[in-house]
Amino acid sequence: MSLPSLLLQTSLPWGLTPDVLVVFAIVALALGLFVTELIPIDLTAILVMVLLMVLEPWTQISPKEGISGFASTATITVLAMLILSTGISRTGVVQKIGNLMADFAGDDPMRQLAATVGIAGPTSGFINNTPVVAILVPVISDLAHEGKTSPSKLLMPLSFASMFGGMLTLIGTSTNILASDVAARLAEDPQYAGLNLHAFSMFEFTQLGIIVLVVGSIYLMTVGYWLLPERVLAEEDYVEEYDLEEFLTEVVVQEESPIVGHTVEEAGEASDLDFDILQIRRDGEEFIEPLDTKTIREGDLLKVRTDRETLEELIETDGLSLTGTLSDEELEQAEEEQNLVEIIIPARSKLVGESLASSTFRDRYNVNVLAFRSRGAVIRERMDQVPIRVGDTLLVQATSGTIDRLSQNRDFIVAHEPEDPDYRTGKIPHAVGIIAGVIGFAALPDPFGLNIVVSALAGVVAMVFTGVLKPNEIYDSVDWNVIFLLAGVIPLGIALEQTGAAELIGNTVASTADFLPVIGVLWVFYTVTALLTNVVSNNASVVLMIPVAVEAAQKVGANAFAFVLAVTFAASTAFMTPVGYQTNLFVYGPGGYKFSDFVRVGGPLQFLLSIVTTLGIAFFWGLRPPA
């Protein structure tokens, strides 16, 4: 025990010590920030790292241990796998598979669902599941609209199936890689000697992963399909979906209007009213982009986004006359004109934390933002000042060429496939061969096999040498917020172990063995982890719960590795909220879902898989330590 702890030691109840209280306080702060999103998750992770080191007398985390997450094999492996996943996406191979499955599905809703699950599940076992969903959102959205099916019926199953598939192999998700690293570190601790702890092999839990994938897929195609609402119309009427009838209209500029002779930018800056000029029609010619420098003339027909009250003020003060509201067909012109499309903000986007105004969004990307959906709520008024969050979906109006450019920008996920995709299809054999090599060498037994971190890094080098990726694309391929999250939570897990906090919680949970069988305690750990991962990061859940699970297993005389697997599987089952897993955020907006939709569809699935997984672990690995 540290000197400050000895000096401050008091008769604290339940075996608490000042060290444990300090660590619990940091955990509570981290969880609170993860849930509320007051600051980005990567900044939260850095804050946790700093607090652990500053409070070293209590947390027992030295500066070396505090930054150990950056040197962790889990962090480096995840970094390499993100780069490899980008290489695969650059070739367009996943999109090609998706398009082939779309041809198979046609306009039959059940075939479309089978195609969605059939692509996302198995693919996510070999490519990190987060980029798989990012790649497939536009493919599945187009499949739904072309087949006259509501995207709401397919996009949530896309996210859920990717989570199932992530449990097929070690590299399916960063959660598995981190869990393997934590288990390997605990195995080196003398106090856990003889507990059968070890790092995961490539196909360590594939047999159970297949069962989870099959059971989950059957649920999505039966009960889940029945529970899923049709929030988005199959006809893709964005005006109706975003309830924009009251916000889109046409006005004519009168002779006496004070905005005559001024540019669009000047007209906007001179007014305190919330409106956007989307298009100008003059003498049969339409001006689309860029508009800011275009001078307004008498008789111009302006397409305007604003609410009814503001429109009345514009008519009264700016010399405009109303011609009528706009329909979706009037807004979505031919290819050479303007189109409506949804774009999703991923975690890696530079726009996260910015607003449309502070990011100069319209000028930078030559698009008009008509509305955006954030956490299920549609925002149409004063949009320029609203902070942009991960998973927000913007409804934008742009030309086909601009949409194609947006689809190549890693700041966005465009919810429709580009008309002129720029894939390196000639590199598909190289990319597929490299991924197969990474998996194959990592799966080989010693002395022929390679550690997964070595195999993955070798794959990165191979992708550059073969031209699948360009050298400058390596750094853009990494979701740095994920890397900083891993680096921040890893020392938090070490603090839980070294201060005795994990032992205290483990003893408490282990007390349930007084009235529950061992399999019941295992189910409790699965359930607690699953509930936790629905509100915080899946990686944070693994780091916090695995040390606790090992302690509890040791106390009840159970197979510690079985408890590690329960936590690992549970951490990838964030079905009940849209914020527990990045892939849920990717489909939240395009699917038009409400928060309650995830509870209604994901709740029964969460319970079903808790039973299936717990029984599967007991069957394959046993509940008692191996002899």
Question: Could you please describe the fold and organization of this structure?
Answer:
- Among the domains are: 238-331, Regulator of K+ conductance, C-terminal domain (Alpha-Beta Plaits, 2-Layer Sandwich); 338-414, Regulator of K+ conductance, C-terminal domain (Alpha-Beta Plaits, 2-Layer Sandwich).
- The strands form 2 sheets. A 5-stranded antiparallel beta sheet has the order 3-2-4-1-5, covered by helices on one side. A 5-stranded antiparallel beta sheet has the order 8-7-9-6-10.
- It is of the alpha+beta class.
- It is globular and about 90 Å long.
- It has helices spanning 3-8, 18-36, 41-54, 56-59, 63-66, 68-71, 73-91, 93-105, 109-124, 129-146, 152-166, 174-187, 206-221, 223-227, 238-241, 264-269, 308-318, 328-331, 361-365, 400-407, 428-443, 452-465, 473-476, 480-499, 501-510, 518-533, 538-556, 560-570, 582-588, 595-621; strands at residues 248-253, 276-282, 285-287, 301-305, 320-325, 338-344, 368-374, 377-379, 393-399, 413-414.
- Helix content is 56%, strand content 8%.
- Helix 2 runs antiparallel to helix 3 and helix 7 runs antiparallel to helix 24 (480-499).
- Mean pLDDT is 84; it is low at 5-11 and 333-337.
- The chain starts with a helix and ends in a 6-residue tail after the last helix.
